[in-house]
Amino acid sequence: MNDDYFIIDVETCPLELKGYFELPEDEKKKFMNPIDSRIVALGIRHNGKNRIFMNEDEKRMLEDFWAEWKSVQKSEKAVSVVGFNIIDFDLPFITTRSFIHNVVISPFLLKQVIDLRQKLSAYKFGRVRGKLKELASLIGLSILEEGGDHVAKWYSEKKFDRIREYLGRDLEITDEIYKRARSTKVLYIDRW
Fold first, then answer.
1. Is residue 78 within 8 Å of 4, Cβ to Cβ?
2. Please, which residues bridge with residue 138 across strands?
């Protein structure tokens, strides 16, 4: 497995926030799809540095994100894309929102995508319990007090610095989990 990698993460919120905050948590989760929600922030971490993309214009933000992705891919040979739940959430969300906005993506191979959630569950169907923040806390990483469930509220209140800080910390946590998975050889679990 190649040691050249970059990490991505996405923060989203519903397109329509009116009445959203009064919904029960299980109803709120139904909005976390690329048809009913939008991207409010995208992050790439490469060589220990974060690049956060935020823009009220989602199309512009996506164009900037894909340009950076393409730049990172050109700078390395066979660079891996890393994330936590990246295959089930981040990549489908980003790809679909790009399609909706008619944004040209940088094509990728799924065999170059490392989903740390899948690795840690040894590809168990239905996954093993454990969110990014829970795992971070268990291995001694500092986490921010408020979680991703606050992103929609921060967005509605225009607390963009808070979203930026939260996403940046998630990128750093994912990087540390990746390094731990590599050193413990969990990273090298494969399906076949």
1. yes
2. none
The pTM of this model reads: 0.91
Range of the domain at 103: 5-188
CA distance readout (Å), 47 to 44, 51, 108, 126? 10, 11, 20, 32
Mean pLDDT of the chain, nearest integer: 90
Report the domain count for the chain: 1
What pLDDT digit, counting tens, does each position of 86-102 carry?
999 999 999 999 999 99
**Segment holding 41, helix H or strand E:** strand 37-46
Q: What is the DSSP letter of 5?
A: E
Q: Give me the CATH number covering residue 181.
A: 3.30.420.10
Largest pairwise CA distance in the chain: 48
**Taking a C-beta distance cutoff of 8 angstroms, is the pair 42, 62 a contact?**
yes
